[in-house]
Specification:
Elements: E1 3-9, E2 13-20, E3 25-32, E4 44-45, H1 47-63, E5 70-77, E6 82-86, E7 96-97, H2 105-113, H3 117-124, H4 133-143, H5 147-152, E8 156-160, H6 161-169, E9 176-178, H7 179-182, E10 188-189, E11 194-195, H8 197-203, E12 212-214, E13 236-241, H9 242-250, E14 258-262, E15 266-273, E16 283-290, E17 293-302, H10 306-315, H11 321-328, E18 338-340, E19 358-360, H12 368-394, E20 400-404, H13 411-421, E21 424-428, H14 433-445, E22 457-461, H15 467-481
Parallel strand pairs: 1-5, 5-13, 9-12, 14-20, 20-21
Antiparallel strand pairs: 1-2, 2-3, 4-7, 6-8, 10-11, 14-15, 15-17, 16-17, 18-19, 21-22
Length: about 500
């Protein structure tokens, strides 16, 4: 049986699935990832560990199948995380500075103060925020000993995590990324569909460092001998950022539909077809390139989403997120408590890099259960803010919200989301849609896809919260948001 091995390299875990052309998942594997926070606001991972976990999950799946049956590899990846490595040895020369890291905030602030933001947004669709890799890559070049000289000499390569994995899987023969990942770097011109020389100059990033940009379903080379348990010559036939892959997995291929991937952070994405500018705090971006067709999207990124539950669980001394949910269920409201998880700043639609987390509205009657419920409500309320901004940009209602990602497995959270958004929430049969979507992209490229499983609803949640209670919750939430912003010292 021919299968596709789809890798999903995420912030919290590296996963892989074996997928048939009929959309059936035959096997899956996972390895945990560690994130380091060496200074307040900094977040990084070991690029070597990222690669090691990818090799491990590949080995786990090759053990349970005939390697000869694997006819393609697909990649979905955490986005906006940047890797810098030696072109000769293939070894990283610095940590992977991940999407949550705020170390490039000063550079972004300087560029904004100098009046560059409007031009950057016009070219890239992205506001000046440390989420995006351009300023982080400049920071790495400035702060890694010898990196600038090595970059000028052509001895280094840089890219998002997908580029790093393509390089490693091909034994250094290919340095490539896809349109969707490139569009998140703040160095890629959305209209020209090419790296922008003026942006490279603005951010002080040498253009030769950057990868070739290809459609998401292109051939990204083939696996090299001896680098993983895969044999030599297996084609890498899809590369997609995790949020893009999830949208593709849902079958969202045109205007009118929106999905929310609820992982460590969250991404809401609505495919628009043509490019749509945002006036309400969202990003204009590329959904994917398939063949010679490029689709654009509107996206809102939330920095701390599902991770809110993990943080609150630790704060309350609970064993796991299930205990957090069980505790939250014991009260019928948060009792006026608001938990704003601005633990890595606020992303869309607020974009406040200096924001910090707040728990407010407590009284003598507040219990740990109220705090637990407020934490889960915060995940939903952040989604509501982005959804409202998206509807304002599109000038149309989005009555149905598709969901996926680890946090979407919670029925309690999904009902909170439906109630607070006043929208129907639909969760498909597969919660982890990113590797599924990337595998589907590869299967379509190889003309072996024949399935609509991802669009079959497994559960649907309809709003049932009284309007007055919903409006009160939103009012309390927006009041609490105002307390999160601190001026930098």
């Amino acid at each position: 049986m021919h299968t596709i091995l789809a890798i999903d390299q995420g912030t919290t875990n590296t996963k892989a699935v074996l997928l048939t052309g009929q959309g059936r998942v035959l096997a899956q594997a996972s390895r945990p990832m560690q994130v380091s926070y060496p200074k307040p606001g900094w977040a990084e991972q070991s690029a070597a560990a990222i690669w090691s976990t990818v090799a491990d999950v590949i080995a786990d799946l090759v053990v349970v199948t005939d390697a000869a049956d694997i006819i393609a590899v697909a990649i979905s990846n955490q986005r906006e995380s940047i890797v810098l490595w030696d072109a000769a040895t293939g070894e990283p020369v610095a940590p992977c500075v991940i999407w949550q890291c705020r170390r490039s905030s000063p550079r972004c602030a300087q560029l904004r103060a100098a009046g560059h933001e409007a031009d950057v947004v016009a070219r890239t669709g992205l506001g000046l925020d440390p989420l995006f890799p351009a300023a982080k890559l400049a920071w790495l070049l400035d702060n890694t000993p010898g990196a600038r000289d090595a970059a000028r000499a052509g001895k280094l390569r840089a890219g998002t995590v997908d580029s790093w994995l393509v390089w490693k899987l091909t034994g250094g023969r290919r340095h490539a990324t896809d349109y969707g990942n490139a569009s998140r770097t703040q160095l890629f011109n959305l209209d020209a569909l090419a790296w922008d020389e003026s942006l490279c100059a603005l951010f002080d990033v040498p253009r030769p460092l950057l990868p070739e940009v290809l459609p998401s379903d292109a051939l990204y080379g083939t696996t090299a001998a001896g680098v993983t348990a895969l044999p030599e010559g297996v084609p890498i036939h899809a590369v997609m950022g995790d949020s893009h892959a999830a949208a593709f997995g849902h079958g969202i291929a045109g205007p009118g539909l929106v999905k929310a991937t609820l992982g460590t952070g969250s991404s809401l994405m609505a495919v628009t077809g043509d490019r749509v500018a945002s006036h309400h705090g969202l990003s204009s971006t590329i959904a994917w390139g398939q063949g010679d067709k490029v689709l654009y999207a509107l996206e809102g990124n939330i920095a701390v989403s599902g991770q809110t539950a993990a943080f609150a669980r630790r704060l309350l001394g609970l064993k796991d997120e299930t205990e957090l949910t069980d505790l939250a269920r014991t009260v019928d409201s948060s009792g006026g408590v608001c938990f704003v998880p601005a633990l890595a700043g606020l992303g869309a639609p607020h974009w406040q890099a200096n924001a910090r987390g707040v728990i407010c509205g407590m009284s003598l009657g507040t219990t740990p259960a109220h705090v637990a419920r407020a934490a889960l409500e915060a995940i939903a309320l952040q989604v509501v803010d982005v959804l409202r901004a998206m509807e304002a940009d599109l000038g149309a209602a989005l009555p149905l919200l598709f969901v996926d990602g680890g946090a979407s497995k919670s029925d309690f959270l999904m009902q909170l989301l439906a109630d607070l958004a006043d929208r129907t929430v639909r969760r498909g049969t597969i919660a982890e849609l990113s590797p599924y979507g990337a595998g589907k992209m590869a299967a379509e490229a190889m003309q072996m896809w024949d399935n609509a499983q991802a669009t079959t609803p497994a559960a649907q949640f309809t709003p049932g919260l009284p309007e007055a209670a919903r409006l009160e919750a939103l009012s309390q939430w927006h009041s609490a948001l105002q307390r999160t912003v601190f001026e930098p010292s």
